[in-house]
Amino acid sequence: MNDLTHAALSILRSSPASKAPRAAKEKPDAKAGDPTYDEFWAYLPDHKFIYVPTGELWPAASVDSRLPPVEIPMREKPILASKWLDQNRAVQQMVWAPGEPTVIEGRLMADGGWVHHIGARSFNLYKAPPLLLPPRPDVDASPWVRHIEYVFPDEAGHIIKWLAHRVQRPEQKINHALVLGGAQGVGKDTLLDPVTHAVGKWNCQEVSPQQVLGRFNGFLKSIILRISEARDLGEADRYAFYDHMKAYTAAPPDVLRVDEKYLREHSILNVCGVIITTNHKADGIFLPADDRRHFVAWSPRTKEDFRPDYWPAIYRWFEGGGRDAVAHYLAKLDLSAWDAKAPPPKTQAFWEIVDASRAPEDAEMADVLDKLGRPHAVTLEQIITKAPTEFRQWLGDRKSRRRVPHRLDECGYVPVRNPYAKDGLWVIKGRRVAVYACKEMVVRDQIEAATQLLPTPSPHGN
Question: How far is the CA of 93 from the CAs of 41, 50, 103, in angstroms?
């Protein structure tokens, strides 16, 4: 940014536009605690007004009923509060951006990130966590640390650093989700209790997998997004859930669009940290072997491993200063060697979920591709000719056709689109068919391999 831009932004920040006006008269029933001009910003795209303490939008009529009109020099009549706010305290955009001030001067958020625009303002919907109270000298975080080490003995160190990153650097994205699995009643919720206190409970959201797959996604405005009970999705939805979560668990994209009921879509920074909790390993989430977005921890404990008085005692400790002690511990933990962008280690539990995610058809598909000599490109019809009877019937069933691309993807083959056909299919022996090629090949080589399957090789697939 050059000196002229710096000077312009300095003028903007010192502008009297943010100052409360002189009211023409006091409301006869004005009370302490009534809203003031300083608590509102006009949101120009919808001609509504942001109430700063909550971030909610008020209609003009409500603002005018609660704020007195404004006296303007050299003007006979005062103007309504809503009109004064439109002219003097207006924002062009609502965003959600941890680490930024409530009103962001001179910048707007586009799909790719921040852009500078002199005179523009963005209202930041993010609310910082509460100021932490000094920890009691006789209380430290060791009971919480011991709890994590007992529940997840092999993965505790990684989990704690992941959580500390959420406390220390909420404006940064961790490029992998935590998957915390285990039997019911082993303390997964207890583990997270003081962490939500540290980042602010309003910055934590909990949703189901079905909600994640739905249209509305306001839950993305979170420092910690917990997706609970990831199971019973059905095979097709397990793949859809995994694909849908790719943009949420890692960046890029650096900016996400949020669609909430009754609100205009707005942009947020993609910084949410995803935690998936589940009690089910075999029929829970889908993970492919080459996944780089999930760290899986699985507890060996059962609820019988805990004394009846364990849970009341730890929650009494939380209430007696333990939450503050954990918050300070996480805020001070050394993360100098922590790389939030690095792929996570692949644990034993990760491979167990990968193996459980593999359908029996994966092995049968791999066997057929081996019989075909692992060609550079292949069609479903070629696979059927080499398939054993039972697998051939499965491949020929229309109900199975949607799952065939997933089976081939697991075996290293992806669809190749015909760039010269509107439907992307290839014409082979007078029929339009899909062609699959080795995913390790570049697109140009995939297309070339597909053309080799044509009776007379042609780039137009005729």
Answer: 11, 11, 10
Query: How far is Cα 424 from Cα 418, in angstroms, rounded to an integer?
Result: 4
Q: Answer yes or no: pTM beyond 0.90.
A: no
Tell me the Ramachandran region of residue 381: left when phi exceeds 0, alpha when psi lies from -120 to 50, beta otherwise: alpha
The span from the CA of 238 to the CA of 230, in Å, is 9
Report mean pLDDT in 10-residue bins for the chain, 462 residues.
Answer: 39 44 51 82 95 94 94 87 95 94 94 90 94 82 97 97 97 96 93 96 93 91 89 64 90 91 85 94 84 96 95 95 95 95 95 83 90 94 92 87 86 93 91 94 94 71 46
Structure tokens that stand for 321 in this block: 């200063």
- Bridge partners, 242 (sequence order): none
- Looking only at the bridges linking them, the beta strands covering 103-110 and 177-181 are unpaired
Q: Which residues contact 291 (CB under 8 A, 6 or more apart)?
A: 350, 354
Pick from 183, 187, 129, 132: nearest CA to 156: 187
> Does residue 253 have a cis bond before it (omega within 30 degrees)?
yes
CA–CA distance, 168 with 132 (Å, rounded to integer): 13
The token pair at 117 is 């625009």
Quickly count: other Cβ atoms within 10 Å of residue 105's Cβ: 18
**Positions of E strands within 140-262:** 177-181, 204-207, 224-228, 255-258
Which residue pairs from 101-104 have beta carbons closer than 8 angstroms and sit at least 24 positions apart in sequence?
102/52, 103/18, 103/41
Q: Which of 190, 193, 148, 200 is nearest to 323 (CA)?
A: 193
* Contact call for residues 426 and 454 (beta carbons, < 8 A): yes
Q: How far apart are CA 379 and CA 434, in angstroms?
A: 6
CA distances from residue 254 to 97, 121, 272 in whole angstroms, order as listed: 11, 20, 11
CA-only gyration radius of the chain, Å: 28
Counting Cβ atoms within 10 Å, is residue 385 exposed (0-12), middle (13-18) or buried (19+)?
exposed
Crossing angle of helices 142-151 and 323-332, in 10° steps, is 80
What is the token pair recorded at 183? Answer: 């039997």
Question: What sign does the CA torsion over 145, 148, 149, 154 have?
Answer: negative
Pairwise CA distance, residues 257 & 401, whole Å: 32
Can you tell me the distance from the alpha carbon of 41 to that of 103, in angstroms, rounded to the nearest whole number?
9
What are the residues whose beta carbons fall under 8 Å from the beta carbon of 344, sequence distance 6 or more? Answer: 158, 176, 292, 294, 295
